Amino acid sequence: MNTTSSFRVIRQAAAGALAALVLAGCGTSMAATDPDRNSASPNALSGICAASTQRNGIVHCTEPFAGKKPIRLPSDPSRTQRYGAVKGGGSKFHTRGGDLPLSAAVARQLEADIENRRRAYANTIYLAVISQGAVTKIKPVADIEENAVLRAAFAGRAMEGAIGVRTRQGDYSLRETLPVRIEFAKSPVHGKLTGRITNATRAVRSAKGSCFAPLNRTRANPLAGVFTAKIAIERAFSMHAPFDDELLLEWSSDVSNMGSAYYPSIATLLGGDPLGRTWETMLHGTPSAGPPVDLRLVNGGGGTC
User: Fold this and answer.
1) Rounded to whole angstroms, how far apart are CA atoms 284 and 55?
2) In the chain, what is the greatest distance between 2 CA atoms, to the nearest angstrom?
3) What SS3 class is residue 11?
4) Is 287 helix (H, G, I), strand (E, B) or coil?
5) Distances (CA, A) of 2 to 7, 8, 92, 159, 188
6) Secondary structure of residue 276 in the 3-state scheme
7) What are the respective helix, strand and coil percentages of the chain, to the nearest 5?
8) Strand pairing class (134-144; 124-131)
9) Contact, 133 vs 175, CB < 8 A?
């Protein structure tokens, strides 16, 4: 082979190698910006909760982990692909690396879904594409069963606070209150977690050591008619408008108080959307027709005093 032929062969080989490298680089770049090209493996996500199943490539979490990290995300696939969930209010997306804004296109898509009564955002973990510091595309990769959300946030716990008294006219005061303690069941059923007002008929020790008197010992006892010691809590997604997420305190199937401060989003279970300091609730509809209840989560207390 002469010198000219040798040079031609070497040049062709180098060009082929360069083309292969360019194509490989392009493939990597496209995979990093398109979750459909670099999809999360269900096997990689199966460990995000204590128990799960898989349906159509989506991990379905049925049991959260105990403790402060009920849902545990794996490492993100790349800097431009991150796992996360929509925060309460719908304006931010929480990831392991912090909160990111939703692009206008993603926000419009979520709102369109809500208008069509598709509210998957309330239970979904997404794989998001990040571009210029914003979420530009989301793909569902896991969903958290409603019972699992309530179990992680409230099951087996207690709340204390104040309940409005019943007036002589039969309505309820927004100013005068009595102390109240609620203890919740350990297992939600059908998306509801039942609870009981423990000082309805007996004195109960509070978390701080004081004694909560029985509510039925006063003429202003707020527990009358449909308002009984047996209650339940339930999440309500986009109740009146997109991302108007409320936690309901239910007195019966069609009578409830509502308040947003204690609504647990999926981002809450990821550690990025903490509950408010106090859950202030009012009767849905005509507030003075039922007792307002302001509560906070507590540890301890509960014995007879």
Assistant:
1) 37
2) 112
3) helix
4) helix
5) 9, 10, 66, 90, 83
6) coil
7) 25, 35, 40
8) antiparallel
9) no
pLDDT digits (tens, 9 = 90+) for 129-173: 999 999 999 999 999 999 999 999 999 999 999 999 999 888 999
Q: What is the end-to-end Cα distance of the chain in Å, rounded?
A: 103
CA 54 to chain centre: 20
The full set of domain ranges for the chain reads 42-144, 156-298
Which pTM was predicted? 0.85
pLDDT band at 42 (very low <50, low <70, confident <90, very high): low
Q: Which residue carries 């204690």 as its tokens?
A: 262
Going by their DSSP bridges, the two strands 279-283 and 255-259 should be labelled as: antiparallel
Paired residues of 249 in beta bridges: 233, 257
- Enumerate residues 6+ apart whose C-beta is below 8 A from 195: 182, 183, 184, 185, 230, 231, 232, 233
**What is the CA 160 to chain-centroid distance, rounded?**
22
**Structure token pair of residue 18:** 């360069």
Q: Which secondary-structure segment (H or E) carries 153? A: helix 146-153
- DSSP E strands in 110-254: the ranges are 124-131, 134-144, 158-166, 172-184, 193-197, 204-205, 211-212, 230-236, 246-252
- Count the residues in the chain: 305
